[in-house]
Write a structure and sequence with these properties.
Blueprint: H1 17-23, E1 30-35, E2 41-46, H2 48-61, H3 67-73
Antiparallel strand pairs: 1-2
């Protein structure tokens, strides 16, 4: 499916209704734009879990970021 949308002078665009329905997005949802090396972009809806999980993991890993840990694991 190919759908065209115009970009405004402010860099904004309207997501066509068929695309919003296919992605199941609504006002307030977050979108992720993934840029590919070939110049294409993929867009997807970001689910709340997509953000919560990495944040939770990051909080757990912070206990290993002391200078002593950096020194101990530097050569691994």
């Amino acid at each position: 499916m190919s759908v065209l949308a115009k970009i405004t002078s402010k860099g904004q665009t309207t997501i066509p209704a068929t695309v919003r329905e296919a992605l199941r997005v609504s006002p307030g949802d977050l979108m992720s734009w993934e840029l590919e090396p070939d110049g294409t972009a993929r867009v997807r809806r970001v689910m709340p879990l997509d953000l919560e999980y990495p944040q939770a993991v990051e909080a757990l890993l912070s206990e290993w970021t002391s200078p002593a840990d950096e020194e101990a694991y530097r050569d691994l």
